Amino acid sequence: MKNVILGLVGVGRIGVMHVDNITAVSEELRAKGINVTLKLTDVAEEHARTVAARVGAEFQPSVEALIASGVDGLVIATGTGTHPDLIRAGVDAGIPVFCEKPVAMNVADALPVLDYIREKNGVVQIGHQRRFDAGYLEAKRAYQAGELGWIHSLRAVTCDMTPPPVEFLATSGGLFRDCSVHDFDILRWLTGREIVEVYAKGSNNGDPAIGEVGDVDTALALVTFDDGTVGTVSATRYNGAGHDVRLEIQGSSRSLMVGLDETTAMASAEPGVSFPSGDPHLTFADRFEQAYRSEMAAFVDLVLGGRENPCTPEDAVAASRVADAAQESLATGVPVRVSLATAHA
User: End-to-end distance of the chain based on CA atoms, in angstroms?
Assistant: First the structure.
């Protein structure tokens, strides 16, 4: 039996989800001869102790104590502003790190972290869970196999059913950085191409408080790839029909849509069409439950040295560059070229 001890920092909404997914994955991996145990910490000590007791995890009073207690991998599920220092702490400890996206609040803050990881030969996996979703994986396979021909259009959609608290939006960096960065990442990952220009527009027809903290509740970005292919990335906080994440890939030979199944959060206007008839997902955690679990299983495999890094910090920063450009375009009203530089100046 191989033993893996994961230390998790942060048991807010995302952190609790990861705790539950690690617990579920540990049961699956035990049948494969891998025993995963969990230690966790959070500044909200009472809450963290409660979560730890519920899943049989060990509580540690601080990040320093958590790392010193002996862990094989570090899972970071705290606020974005804390990511750089926690990544460095994990790298300094010589253990693989999993960090929820993004690496930092913006690309400028992320570049020194990339340098640090490289200098220390650190191993850091960034959380872009769509890379583990069955639909996206099949779309990538079909495209790489030549089944779609050449792509002429891509349309990515991410719609939350209800907005998160305004307090969160005030520090999220904007709709494109918080939400659409997943679409930017998956478009690069699937096509193998870079997005070189973004033109974005947005609107606020929901809670005016969202606009007051400098964000929009709905936005659309026209993206241009390095081979001239065009696509759109749209997002909203107010999709009352349910949580809706889709990607339409139209090729010269065949078209595919990721996210088109019985749970798709829309209805047909055509007479006599009852599809889709299932209940829509309500949250991103529901929509990507299996993908999140597969992502954690992949991190355990990375800790054990059994696979290559499925989402490097460089990958994540490349998606963040596009998100930064989209936010700039949204603010200025003009198309913005995406910097493709990969090193910290």
Answer: 46
Does residue 343 belong to any structural domain of this protein?
A: no
Q: What is the CATH number of the domain that holds 36?
A: 3.40.50.720
Residue 173, helix vs strand vs coil? coil
Contact 200, 221 (CB under 8 A): yes
Q: State whether the Cα torsion 304-306-309-310 is positive or negative.
A: negative
User: How are strands ordered across the β-sheet holding 2-9?
Assistant: 58-59, 34-41, 2-9, 73-76, 97-100, 124-127
Bridge partners (DSSP) listed for residue 8:
40, 75
Give the span between the Cα atoms of 251 and 217, in whole angstroms.
Answer: 31
What does the pLDDT look like over 21-35, one tens digit per residue? 999 999 899 999 999
Predicted local confidence at residue 341, as pLDDT: 63
Q: Which domain holds residue 279?
A: 134-283+319-337
Task: Judge whether 254 and 147 are in contact, CB under 8 Å.
Answer: yes
Tokens of 158: 């991410």
The two tokens of residue 89 are 């702490």
With vertex at residue 181, the alpha carbon angle to CA 42 and CA 47, rounded to the nearest 5 degrees, is: 15
Count structural domains, the chain: 2
Closest CA to 187 of 174, 172, 198: 198
Provide the strand spans (E) within 32-166: 34-41, 58-59, 73-76, 97-100, 124-127, 151-159
**Cα of 211 vs its chain's centroid, Å:** 24
**CA-CA distance, 72 to 69, in Å (whole number)?**
10
Global pTM reads: 0.94
Interval 293-329: pLDDT, tens: 999 999 999 999 999 999 999 999 999 999 999 999 9
